[in-house]
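idk why but the lab printer keeps eating my pages so im just putting this in chat instead. protein + glycyl-adenosine-5'-phosphate:
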Amino acid sequence: MAKSEDILKKIISHAKEYGFVFPSSEIYDGLSAVYDYGQYGVELKNNIKDYWWRSMVQHHENIVGIDSAIFMHPTIWKASGHVDAFNDPMIDNKDSKKRYRADVLIEDQIVKIEGKIKKEVDKARKRFGDSFDEEKYLSENPRVLGYNEKIEGIKNRLYPAMDGNDLEAIRQLIIDLDIADPVSGSKNWTDVRQFNLMFSTRIGSLSETSNEIFLRPETAQGIFVNFLNVQKTARMKIPFGIAQIGKAFRNEIVARQFIFRMREFEQMEMQFFVRPGEELKWFEYWKEERMKWHLSMGIPAGKYRFHDHDKLAHYANAASDIEFDFPFGFKELEGIHSRTDFDLAAHEQYSGKKLQYFDPELNESYVPFVVETSLGLDRTFLSVLSHAYTEEKLEDGSERVVMHFSPVLAPIKATILPLIKKDGLPEKALQIFDTLKFDYMCQYDEKDSIGRRYRRQDAIGTPYCITVDHQTQEDNTVTIRERDSMKQDRIGIDKIRTVIDERLKTDP
Ligand code: GAP
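predcted complex ->
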């Protein structure tokens, strides 16, 4: 088994064993690509939401938040283009009966060729040592040039075929590239078909009068249709933003990689309304701001990278992803899109209502342009979880699994432990718990040996364990154990708050 798959499996099993993430409906054998968050998962998720909300809404005088409904008027999805164009091309393998996204099968080939280029570069670097000039090598080496030509050739066929909805051309590309089913190795493919990703249901109680509506596939449209409500009631002046956190639903063809691609997930989106012509400046601004936000969570910069889009969606004039190095490689975490006036103009057209802003400085009305930042909450959760997961060998030869969460995100900030379950120690520990519980998410734990209790807290990433022993009763001191260093200090009970606050100071 590949090492990365191995790590992902360990993270999935740890997430289940310690109450972070459970497969949904597990006692009925689960529901594909749907997950439930457990007692620690929900705390971590809420902390991530809060961290994002504070950085977006609380820290910006020109950004406000909303919470729009999941059900929306069906015409909204016609106007947004989702009814006609929110499709993925799918292909089935006739032998394995597995279904794939046809474009992803082709893009995986590009990634393979890019891997070959990287290998060539690594080899050359070793050979030439300090004198190696990577840029020159990439632009002159015949093998690298050949690989790049191949990539360009694939893109030049794939992108027009996708844009033109030419499903036969996509299939032909799969055949010409000799792509085999990654599971079975078979090349026995069906035709490529389009598959709309929106879930639908019916609103109204009587079947004759009920109407088909959709579960929203993104939270953004709830912001667009409330643009004027918010602008007027909050008296916002351009440039300004509207933020929202909420559920979105997509009937993904291939749902895999744990909570990376789910059918029910959460987004944290912000639409920033700007003057037409100024959108690219704001696009660059938000790209940098969003990267800074990710880095502020204490994960090293090398785990993130930008991926600027060559192929733009019909509504965008610039787009970039922030990718994260998940256990299965670099993949999209957040999208930053310059969406032009596409959405507001479309809603004007379909609703017949004006969605314009009167700009007092220019003395004119216009449909604002929009720069969007769109982050998957569950993917952020997975990035934080997978980075935090660490297996450590200790000096005494024993092992521990520890979640090195940034303290601000840790589900539990401190756990209070009586050394033994008698002599009045539990009562004292509970007293401390009662004084801290209003400010921090704390736990009280008296079960098992102290060593096992420490391990349990390491496994859920609690930054501090506070142990009450016999000396506590004499001088009102406790030991405070720090998760990462496992160092224990003796401090007065009145100092606990200062120690915890110091570690929680990290702010978005
Ligand atoms: N409003 C723009 C929009 O929805 P997107 O790139 O389709 O853009 C934005 O989605 C983010 O939502 C992605 O970067 C990803 O983090 C998250 N996301 C999208 N589909 C997802 C899925 N099936 N499961 C989990 N997260 C998903």
